[in-house]
Amino acid sequence: MRPGGPVPGGPGSKPKSFLPSLKRLLRRLAPERFVVGAIIVLVIASVVLNTLGPYLLGKATNLVFDGFVGKQLDPGLTKDQTVELLRRQGEDTRADMLSAMNVIPGTGIDFDAVGRVLAIVLTLYVAASLFGWMQGYLLNIVINRTVKRLRDEVEHKLHRLPLRYFDTAPRGDVLSRVTNDVDNVSQTLQQTMSQLLTSLFTVLGILIMMFWISPLLALIALLTVPAAIAVTAQIAKRSKPHFVDQWKYTGEVNSSVEEAYTGHEIITAFGRSREVGREFDKRNGKLYNASFRAQFISGLIMPAIMFLGNVNFVFIALVGGLRVATGNLSLGEVQAFIQYSRQFSQPLTQIGAMANLLQSGVASAERIFEILDAEEQSTDPLVEQPLPDGRGRVEFDDVSFGYDPESPVIEGLSLVADPGHVVAIVGPTGAGKTTLVNLLMRFYELDAGTIRIDGVDITTINREHLRERIGMVLQDTWLFQGTIRDNIAYGNPDATEADILDAARAAYVDRFVHSLPNGYDTVIDEEGGGVSTGEKQLITIARAFLAKPSILILDEATSSVDTRTELLVQHATAALRRDRTSFVIAHRLSTIRDADLIVVMQKGRIVEQGTHERLLAERGAYFDLYNAQFAAAE
After folding, report:
1. Which sign, positive or negative, has the C-alpha torsion 110, 115, 116, 122?
2. What pLDDT is attached to residue 3?
3. Which residue stretches of the chain have pLDDT < 50?
4. Which of 159, 294, 297, 408 places its Cα 20 to 30 Å from the Cα of 449?
5. Assessment of whether the complete model's pTM goes beyond 0.90
6. Distance from first CA to last CA of the chain, Å, rounded?
């Protein structure tokens, strides 16, 4: 892989602002707009019923208090006469309070009326709970569908990104965005959407009821709102960068673990375990510090709002008591208002507590959006030019390419591979050998020039159709977790059992597979556990056999196997190359003596080409490579 510039949306990128990212995340709920509408209706219904509860309970309190006071009064006097008597006795405050009450002197508590009110309240609360359960159920469906679409979109986006992106992106960070960040967004939506909707509508409903009961007390209750908003905004502003760092360092820790796992043997062999452990501790420490600061700072929101709510409660209780004493409010109304004031601070506290979740979720959403916004590989032509049923004549015409525009790797290269011929590409490391075949596969796009297959420009061909015509056997073998049969069949999902066995015999897999516990049904993992390096290579060759490509690319297919296995691989690749155009990249020059054309590359240019005998006779670059290799061997 080649170094490049910073990854679009990588850890060093500047995060987007909170509100635009939150709006973009919420817009992903658009396909569920009708269900979301039903959820909002259910939330409103639940909030309305819950909001009416304290008001009706205040009515019950008034019935109890009125009955208790009425029982203490002289039954021979009416309410008005009792009030007048109190005023003549100089008890104006008591008279004002009694005048605002609905009492009948000598009459006690009407328990039937109290029971009816309580039954209504119970019915309201049961219905509110039912509506709340329904909206929670629907919201769960909406969020899981939305996150599923987001995962699908990220997965499909990864397949549309150019190889250049993955050359410069740390693998662990990409995996963290696709897994951890998507899961964090899901968790954030699950925990905040329902509470946020309920809290907002609860605040609105409670405000209406508080102004209905007493505008003065409502204004007192509202004094804490600007302070709560200011506190939440200031704390959230300071916690946001730490949440961004938290998920950035999570990606770095994942990268460190992934590198340590895949390179475990090398790390152990070179005795670098301590250094790797120190590097992990360093990154883990950064993650700890960022997480601690983010959670600690955002965690200050709830206690700050609770403190403001308690201060507000003191003023409401004091002023409310005076209003009852003067007869401007009933005891039940003050009780209901106090309940509303506590309920009013509760959703504000919940909104404050959700701020840290939102900060974390939006920080993760930004990292996901950075992948979704990354520049994609060029689109395939709308009208594809079909490849003729030729044998695979390949032409490189004045091709130039560089991973970095300032540092070209290949310049002005021209080459023709005739159908059925074997073209060997040799040269020192960094000469551009692998780059050449990567361009043929359209893993990268040319900076200049043209590549044609059977006379057709490959840029006019759909990438998928182009790659169906080409088979690759790489130096680094890749096997997925499954049976040997499944790994061979990966080359052609429609292959029959007979086709799979024929490919296995042609690639000499059949010679060792019967010694395994379950033969072709032996399960191996993605690292090839259970089979040797050479046997893995033979399985990949069988996979290429089954694909039946018209063009074959062999990239150092024998570089990591022993001499005996190399002979098997050479026999297998010789059979595989028959009747198809083949490109062979090789450092072992003894393996390409029978090639129809040997191309010698240096610094992105072809310096020599010809047969083995002709190039040796010219005593040029190939002659020097060949002699240097065998002199070193001797």
Report:
1. positive
2. 36
3. 1-15, 632-634
4. 159
5. no
6. 32
**CA 495 – CA 483 distance, rounded (Å):** 15
Q: What pLDDT score was predicted for residue 26?
A: 84
Residues 6+ apart with CB under 8 A from 571: 508
Q: Give CA–CA dist 483/531, Å, rounded.
A: 12
Q: How many other β-carbons are positioned within 10 Å of the β-carbon of residue 520?
A: 20
Local structure of 424: helix, strand or coil = strand
Task: Name residue, tokens 């963290």.
Answer: 176
pLDDT score of 11: 36
Q: Which amino acid is at 145?
A: R
What pLDDT, on the 0 to 100 scale, is given for residue 180? 85
The DSSP H or E segment spanning 551 is: strand 551-555
Contact 569, 540 (CB under 8 A): no
Query: What are the tens digits of pLDDT across the range 480-491?
Result: 788 888 888 888
The structure tokens listed for 77 are 């006097």
The pLDDT value recorded for residue 127 is 93
Q: Output 173-178 pairs: Cβ under 8 A, ≥24 positions apart.
A: 173/7, 173/10, 173/11, 173/251, 173/252, 173/254, 173/255, 174/371, 175/254, 175/258, 176/247, 176/250, 176/251, 176/254, 176/255, 177/251, 177/367, 177/368, 177/370, 177/371, 178/151, 178/154, 178/371
Rounded to an integer, what distance in angstroms lies between the CA atom of residue 445 and that of residue 435?
Answer: 11
DSSP 8-state class, residue 179: I
141-153: string of b/e by CB count within 10 Å (b at 16+)?
A: ebbeebbeebbee
- Where residue 442 falls (left for φ over 0; alpha for ψ -120 to 50; beta otherwise) is left
Closest alpha carbon to 437 in 468, 396, 476: 396
Burial of 72 (0-12, 13-18, 19+ CB in 10 A): exposed
Q: Which two tokens stand for residue 543?
A: 């996979």
Which two structure tokens, joined as six digits, stand for 267? 């790390």
Amino acid at 124: L
